[in-house]
Q: What sequence folds into this?
């Protein structure tokens, strides 16, 4: 017996087939006739099928109907979606009532690690924010790949989203509409073609992984920028993209679950006040200039603030702690108290401390703190540009 879910998939396949055919895609008459016969044989949906399906016995008749009535591709797509929406809505609503709510994620092929598929749900708000960011970049989301190459990448590893037909035909459709006619823009592809608002979390995350894969984005700076912006949205839904390995020296990101920490700052700068003018102030300004959110007392404290409370808040709600180690640092109590908080987080969570050595060497640090001497550190003499680049790398992978 055909289930509601199977019926819904057949109806959606028929819809996609007719949309493809009416907009220049390659479709065989046999496919149409078989789907039409199967659906008309089902008494529960026969009368709900669009009139054009019930009356057009083959594709020739369908073309004679739609070609003069709707002269543009856009009009044809809009008409067919409107005709199929009522029956699809009916079938999908009934399927949600009768089918288990968690039986779909396991049906799709995905590269997402098992710990990433859990109870968290990526909201429509987050999805729209991420898609709007991708579109606002002013660059193709397919990177250096052709659209058909990118399709093949996500098709094989992320599942087929809302597309229920063969890869080769999908590639032909994309060529027709993104190269030959160019009537499908990136917004249409993301929202309509890949169905990224409606697809499973696993598919959505896999799609994002492919967007930042080194095969797609060649520049590390582009990969880091993308992951930083996306992670700032995803983290509220319990996911982040995290660097797990490298290919040709470039990071490969995987979607993993995370605690829903609502960090207010990317970094907290722990330092001695004597080091402000000669280094820390310029570092904080440089980081802000590249869109890193910084907790730095000159930026973050306001008249009347309780100093201890605000610093504790900054330490708790910052993803990383930049620790500027100098001779002044080691003789001041306050920055070392801050460091103790960061050390506890570094031990029980993940890497949190990002040390910078300012006019000190290994022996100076080791004498004061053997633990800190074991951390790979940036050195002030490397210059602000190099240090900021290293910090951006850690923020992107953490």
A:
């Amino acid at each position: 017996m055909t289930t509601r879910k199977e019926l819904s998939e057949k109806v959606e396949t028929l819809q996609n087939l007719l949309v493809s055919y009416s907009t220049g895609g390659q479709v065989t008459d046999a496919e149409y006739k078989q789907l039409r016969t199967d659906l008309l044989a089902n008494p529960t949906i026969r009368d709900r099928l669009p009139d054009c399906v019930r009356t057009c016995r083959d594709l020739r008749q369908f073309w004679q109907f739609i070609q003069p009535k709707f002269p543009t591709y856009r009009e044809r797509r809009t008409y067919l979606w409107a005709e199929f929406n009522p029956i699809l809505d009916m079938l999908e609503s009934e399927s949600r009532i009768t089918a288990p709510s968690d039986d779909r994620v396991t049906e799709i092929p995905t590269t997402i690690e098992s710990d990433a598929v859990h109870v968290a749900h990526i909201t429509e708000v987050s999805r729209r924010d991420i898609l709007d960011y991708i579109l606002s970049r002013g660059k193709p989301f397919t990177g250096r790949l052709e659209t058909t190459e990118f399709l093949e990448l996500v098709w094989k590893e992320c599942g087929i989203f809302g597309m229920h037909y063969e890869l080769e035909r999908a590639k032909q459709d994309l060529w027709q509409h993104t190269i030959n006619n160019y009537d499908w823009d990136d917004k249409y592809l993301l929202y309509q073609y890949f169905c990224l608002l409606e697809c499973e979390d696993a598919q959505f995350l896999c799609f994002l992984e492919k967007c930042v894969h080194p095969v797609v984005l060649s520049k590390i700076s582009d990969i880091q920028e993308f992951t930083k912006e996306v992670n700032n949205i995803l983290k509220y839904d319990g996911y982040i993209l995290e660097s797990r390995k490298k290919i040709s020296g470039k990071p490969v990101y995987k979607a993993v679950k995370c605690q829903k920490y609502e960090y207010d700052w990317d970094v907290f700068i722990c330092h001695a006040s004597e080091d402000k003018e000669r280094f820390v102030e310029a570092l904080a300004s440089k980081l802000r200039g590249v869109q890193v959110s910084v907790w730095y007392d000159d930026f973050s404290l306001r008249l009347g603030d309780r100093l201890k409370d605000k610093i504790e808040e900054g330490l708790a709600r910052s993803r990383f702690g930049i620790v500027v180690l100098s001779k002044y640092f080691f003789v001041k109590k306050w920055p070392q108290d801050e460091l103790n908080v960061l050390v506890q987080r570094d031990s029980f969570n993940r890497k949190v401390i990002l040390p910078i050595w300012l006019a000190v060497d290994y022996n100076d640090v080791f004498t004061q703190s053997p633990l800190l001497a074991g951390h790979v550190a940036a050195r002030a003499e490397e210059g602000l540009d190099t240090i900021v680049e290293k910090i951006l790398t850690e923020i992107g992978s953490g």
Notes: The first strand starts at residue 239 and ends at 247. Residues 265-397 form a domain with the Rossmann fold fold (CATH 3.40.50.10140). The chain is about 55% helix and 10% strand.
